[in-house]
Amino acid sequence: MRITQLALVLATAFALAGCPKKVDTLPDKPADSGSTGSSTSTTGAGTTDTSSGSQMSSDQAALQELQKLGTTIYFDYDKAEIKQEFVPVVAANAKYLNANTARKVRLEGHTDERGSREYNIGLGERRAQTVRRALMLQGVGEAQIVTVSYGEERPAAGGSDETAYGKNRRVEIGYGQ
Amino acid sequence: MLRMIHVMSKPMFSSAKSCMSRWLASIALTLLSASAQSQLVIEITKGQANAIPIAIVPLGWQGPVAAPFDVAGVVAADLERSGRFAPLERRDMIEKPTSGEEIRFQDWKYLKSDYIAVGKLVPDGVDRFQVQFELYNVLNGQRLLGQRIPSTTAALRATAHRMADMIYQQLTGTPGAFATRVAFLNVEGTPPSQRYKLIVADADGENQQNIADSPEPLMSPAWSPDGQSLAYVSFESKNAAIYVQTLRTGERRRVSARAGINGAPAWSPDGKQLALTLSRKDGDVDVYTLDLGNQMLTRMTFDNGIDTEPQWSSDGKKIYFTSDRAGSPQIYEVDVADPRSPRRVTFEGSYNARPRMSPDGKKLAVVHLDNGAYRIATVDLASKAVQILSQGRQDESPSFAPNGSTVIYATQERGRGVLATISVDGRVQQRLAAIRGEVREPVWGPFPSK
Q1: Do A116 and B220 touch (CB under 8 A)?
Q2: CATH 2.120.10.30 assigned to B182-444
Q3: Longest dimension (CA), chain B
Q4: How much is the ipTM here?
Q5: I need a surface site. Which of A103, B142, B234, B313 has the fewest CB within 10 A?
């Protein structure tokens, strides 16, 4: 059942991000499981029971919140501050991680294509670090977080207009490992 | 400055000089026929108005079979591509002298060639040749060059580039850069499924060699000063790491795979150190030097802004880098021996990044934000004057040719990444597009070691 719920998180995140995303960047296994591998390989099967009606545990609640808000935070041009509208997204992820302390996240920082590539690697790192600090301020353990910056190398959307740029300036919170 | 992108038929260089005074508009040189792996098309988008008319006569060859290589053809193509020469069409050559005594200068005057190169390809043992050539001034009959270059079948192309270098230097006073190589990235596919290839090619796009190939991003190639190795960034392990790869053997060494950023490698002039960018565990993006012998790291920047894109000064005593410590990216310099006192170098404009040193050490090429467009500019280190060179909107990754005459950079054409070159006086431009996918991050290699 947990797997199904996680699949829903996945599907929601897809919808929010508006772009295909790698399965392995999202929650794919229960916190207490020692198993590996990509247990969540499909995203369309999420219409089954999501434990409505039964008593929810705190981590189930956290999961539902995460499911609602997603795992991507968007930024302004050449900025790394978390905008007010994404504060709840960070909070939902922090809550989930606090309820599942064995889970680890990989924060991938990205930029739009404008400007110099290595400077953009720096900017993507700064965005990932901003989200990392915000998560840690809300109690997430340092050991739960790794960061990587792809700069402008992995755009979420093609094209050279503000719509594409806005989708590309982001941090993706990946629940891969 | 006019930029022409239409591909037109080749103009007649043998026609009157008034014709030459127009742009040498858009000569498409498709350099593909010789090699199936070639994937670059070079197009001269703007030539110089006063290009020098020259005749490069096919080399004499005595043998039962055809000559193994068209040396003169490569020489003429090199000179033409420089934009500073207008080689005579071969079909307009009414005779084919192979030595100085055979030249009837009156005829070449009539054909309006100011200079003429003649010579022979002479067998010199098994698979060995001598390229013998002479360069003459047609107007006064003076002999300007006489050279014999030993070669082999496999090296005849490189020998042709050397011959072009010698002619170029004799007639312009600047060393030619035809016998050099360029590294660049070729990216095919659309995110998230892309294929990244690091490629090295001769400066004319020929002779391509695949250095690395990955489904994860490859970035920031940098030539070692001896031209034997490339440092580059690869995300193949899902995190950034810097590798150093020897081109001839393919041998590869991972030199930095620390937590966070491992980026922007730049070789010290003696080839013993790399400057690089790390963010370590705390996420502070700073420039370091890495001794490739003893692996020792030395921190060069201490600000908590983004400090990256290091570049060594020609004497190895300073490092230039991009920093946004003052709010927007600007170029700074720091003494390697005393890195605690950085100085700001650029003040003009709200965005100056990715400094690359000119071979004479007097200028930096940078990415400069100019009225909302990212363009390649040069910054004179003495006067701090900024000169904008390119006219695109997304231009980046400038790199000087080792003779300092030209800057190669990445630009966009109809949403696709292509490479372009521009002479530092802005008068000659070329476009280099891939047959498939995008090309980006060009880096011009050093002169070949003699």
Answers
A1: no
A2: yes
A3: 75
A4: 0.86
A5: B142
